[in-house]
């Protein structure tokens, strides 16, 4: 593991990256004990506080865990998909907010990714996920539901559809699309959307899931995308 002391990059960040690369490469395996702070400080020729900051960065990413006591130290953690969801969502949200990504492009990507899980959701979606979808549809039909609550319910509905594929890798990859892109779209369109139309499309999708019909799930998502894109275009046109 090496760092470049002449680099403008923060030393603790460089150390964290070097250790992370060792974990990704498999040279540091799950439950392996990292060298002590003193050993790492000597290896990287930095102070112990700098090493400590690097370890905090790794712990914040759930890549390592620390234990106290005689047999304690820093150990490589087993990162779960569930723990990684939040990072995926945060990264996707930052990418959308910091780059010039059009609404049309974000919407296209979000629905294209979700349609990719239609076949597996049709095959595997269990009663709990279907019940979650039905519960959100019922919630969305409540007349006094706020715009923000409707958006949250919208996200929960689509998350249940994605999780119904019972593929943690697919769910992780779609987390950024469903929970980062969708709120962005909702905040632009929720004040003008036809809730009854959205609920009807959600009912169509849930019915297709229950019928194990992947083509109808995909068609329902395509109709939902068309509805969203059309609404956005009309709003942007009015704003010009």
Structure characterization notes:
With 240 residues, this protein is mainly α. It folds into two domains: 11-76, Arc Repressor Mutant, subunit A; 81-239, Four Helix Bundle (Hemerythrin (Met), subunit A), CATH 1.20.120.530. The protein contains eleven helices and two strands. It has helices at residues 11-25, 37-44, 48-60, 81-98, 103-115, 118-124, 127-140, 147-163, 168-189, 195-210, 214-239, and strands at 64-67, 73-76. It has a two-stranded antiparallel ribbon with strand order 1-2. A hairpin with a 5-residue loop joins strand 1 (64-67) and strand 2. Helix 8 packs antiparallel against helix 9. The radius of gyration is 23 Å and the shape is elongated. 29% of the residues are buried.
Q: How are the elements arranged and paired?
A:
Blueprint: H1 11-25, H2 37-44, H3 48-60, E1 64-67, E2 73-76, H4 81-98, H5 103-115, H6 118-124, H7 127-140, H8 147-163, H9 168-189, H10 195-210, H11 214-239
Helix pairs in contact: 1-3, 2-3, 4-9, 5-9, 5-11, 6-11, 7-8, 7-10, 8-9, 10-11
Total number of strands: 2
Q: Any idea how many domains?
A: 2
CATH superfamily of the largest domain: GntR ligand-binding domain-like
Question: How are strands sequenced across the largest beta sheet?
Answer: 1-2
Largest pleated sheet = 2 strands, antiparallel
Features of the shown structure:
2 strands; elongated; mainly alpha; 240 residues; Arc Repressor Mutant, subunit A; two-stranded antiparallel ribbon; Four Helix Bundle (Hemerythrin (Met), subunit A)
